[in-house]
C-alpha cells in the first residue's frame, strides 16, 4: 500500500470545497422555497429542476472535484477520465432531481422524505464512487468496507435532511443555516469515502496512466461554477418576472404593468390595420351663367 495525500495544498481545497457546497445548497434551498410558492405544476417543476442542478451539480459534484484537486499519490501520476467524470455529474443531478420531485408534490410526510433521502443518497454514492472510478493511478484502488458503509449512512442521512429542509425552511437566516449544515454533511461524506480508499502501487503501470491532469480540472470546474451561478440567476429572474406580470396561472394581470404582460401587444397594435372612415365625396360645383 503506497502513500496517499488528501490535502496536497493544505486547507485551500477543503475550504474551497465547503464554500462550493454551501453556495450550491443555498441556491438550491432558495429555489425549493420558490417552488413551494408556485401556483402551477409546470412552474414548480421548473424551480425544482433549477434546485437539482444547484444542489446536485454545485453542492455535490463541484464540491467533490474541488476537493479531489488536493488528492495526490506521490509515487504515481493521477489522471481523470472525462467521460466517467461526466457520468458522475449526471448521477448527482438526476438523483437530487428525482428526490425533489418526490417531496415537492403532494402532502408533506416523513415517509416521502425518507424515501427521497434513500434514493438521493444512493445517487450521491453513485456519483462519488463513479467519480473515483474515473480517477486513474498506477495501481489498484481498494476500499475499506466499514468506511464505505459509514459514507453511505452519511449520504442517506444528509440527503434526508436536505429534502426536509427543502420542504420546510423559510427565510434567509434559516436557509443559510440549513445550507451550512448541508455543506458540512456533503463534505463529511466525501472525506469519509476518501478515507476508505487505499492504493496498491504497480510500478509497471506508471507509463500506462492516461487522462487529464488534476490541475486541468480547474478550468471546467470554474466554467461549470460560473455557468451554474449565471444560469440559476437568469432562470430565477425570468421566473420572477413572469410571476410578477401574471397571476400565477399564466393569465396577464390587470392594472399596473398590465401593458407589459404580453410583450407582443405593442407590436401587434402597431401592425393592426387602422380602420378609416370613408372620406367624404367631393361636392360637384354648379356652374353659374351670366344673365
From TrEMBL:
Segments passing through the bilayer: 15-35, 47-70, 82-101, 113-131, 143-165, 177-197, 217-237
Start and end residues of each MHYT domain: 9-200
InterPro entries: MHYT_dom
Residue ranges of the region described as Disordered: 267-291
Keywords: Membrane, Transmembrane, Transmembrane helix
PANTHER family: DOMAIN SIGNALLING PROTEIN, PUTATIVE (AFU_ORTHOLOGUE AFUA_5G11310)-RELATED (PTHR35152:SF1)
Record protein name field: MHYT domain-containing protein
